[in-house]
């Protein structure tokens, strides 16, 4: 088995249940400003690109300010009737691009992009993340979040349209089940 085939087999195993593609990441642009204090609080996942770390329902993120100025990320989901939690940290790595945050959930993992493409702080947030491997392959993540467990279809469609304009295939989005969820 040649080295290219071994690398491909490893990538295939890692990318199961992920949105992957060939080539570099699309040229998605984050919004130019971010008021982090207005962004803090609860956000409910309405649509998501499938991934390996979210397999449940009632998915919610709670963002709060840490003493060190970074953002505490508390994610919760219900999977097979059991609440699962993940606690991470986000920060603005480049002050000239305040809506391009970096996030991670374990000390041993590298930071990943968390770009706020669009938010009105009160109703919706559109998040995009993409990592490229040598410009040959990419891993894409996207979320449409809401301050409530529902979001008007017209708003969600408009946010999907923004990603489509950047060349992102929004057909990957699946709706998150927020029915019967605890507050």
Key descriptive features of the protein:
eight-stranded antiparallel beta barrel; 183 residues; 42% strand; disordered N terminus; alpha+beta; 3 helices
Question: How would you portray this structure in words?
Answer:
By secondary structure, this protein is an alpha+beta fold. Helix content is 16%, strand content 42%. It has three helices and ten strands; from the N terminus they run αβαββββββββαβ. The protein has an eight-stranded antiparallel beta barrel with strand order 2-3-4-5-6-7-8-9. β5 and β6 form a beta hairpin.
Query: What is the count of DSSP helices, taking H or I runs of 4+ residues?
Result: 3
Q: Could you give a short account of the major beta sheet?
A: 8 strands, antiparallel, barrel
Structural class: alpha+beta
**Lateral arrangement of strands in the main beta sheet:** 2-3-4-5-6-7-8-9
Mean pLDDT: 90
Strand content: 35-45%
The H/E string reads HEHEEEEEEEEHE
Radius of gyration using CA atoms only = 17 Å
Total beta strand runs: 10
Shape: globular
Fraction of helical residues: 10-25%
Question: First CA to last CA: what distance?
Answer: 52 Å
Which stretches are low in confidence, meaning pLDDT under 50 for 5 or more residues running? 1-17
What's the arrangement of secondary structure elements?
Layout: H1 3-14, E1 19-22, H2 36-39, E2 41-48, E3 57-65, E4 71-79, E5 82-92, E6 100-104, E7 112-119, E8 124-133, E9 137-146, H3 153-165, E10 174-175
Antiparallel strand pairs: 1-9, 2-3, 2-9, 2-10, 3-4, 4-5, 5-6, 6-7, 7-8, 8-9
